[in-house]
Specification:
Elements lengths: L3 E4 L5 H10 L5 H16 L7 E6 L5 E9 L6 E9 L8 H15 L4 E7 L5 H9 L3 E11 L2 E9 L4
Parallel strand pairs: 4-5
Antiparallel strand pairs: 1-2, 2-3, 3-4, 5-7, 6-7
Helix pairs in contact: 1-2
């Protein structure tokens, strides 16, 4: 599948909301947090602490998106805040293209480490496997973090020197 990646625009918000809702993984309050970040980025694209990108398919439809940004408490460490792909577009390389794009942006800014946090819930198994397939390692596991029985799993990837 041929995709293109570009900066997120206002016109992408409805498609992103649909991706997050159709994933059936995120609570409404989690989706609202995603949009707080997206709105901050759109209001201050050159000044935001986040970089937001969308992947468009060959028909120029939003197939996925990612949000990454520097961790304000660390030097050279970046957080992968969101990465999600339209259910109909999954397993077609969209997520891999998005995460590679984000990693390259981090490298361009002399970043050395990307952190991605996720849940231990069974519904996140594909997400955890995705991170492992992209070369991320499990760095920490915090029991009952999100809720009782819902652990926080922190993945990370150290990037090579630019």
């Amino acid at each position: 599948m041929k995709i293109s990646i570009r900066s997120l625009q206002e016109k992408d918000k409805d498609a992103i909301r649909a991706i997050l809702q159709e994933a059936q993984m995120f609570r409404d309050d989690e989706i609202e947090v995603a949009f707080e970040v997206i709105d901050e980025y759109l209001e201050n694209p050159g000044e935001s602490d986040y970089w937001s990108y969308v992947a468009n398919d060959e028909k120029d439809r939003v197939a996925g998106f990612t949000i990454v940004g520097p961790n304000p408490m660390a030097i050279g460490t970046y957080d992968l805040y969101w990465i999600a792909v339209d259910r109909a577009q999954q397993r077609r390389g969209v997520g891999r293209e998005l995460i590679t794009y984000a990693e390259n942006c981090v490298k361009e800014h002399k970043g050395r480490l990307i952190i991605a946090e996720t849940s231990s819930k069974p519904t996140y198994l594909r997400t955890r496997n995705f991170y492992k397939q992209q070369g991320y390692s499990e760095l920490a596991h915090i029991r009952d973090y999100y809720d009782v029985g819902d652990d926080l799993i922190i993945f990370g990837k150290y990037l090579k020197e630019v």
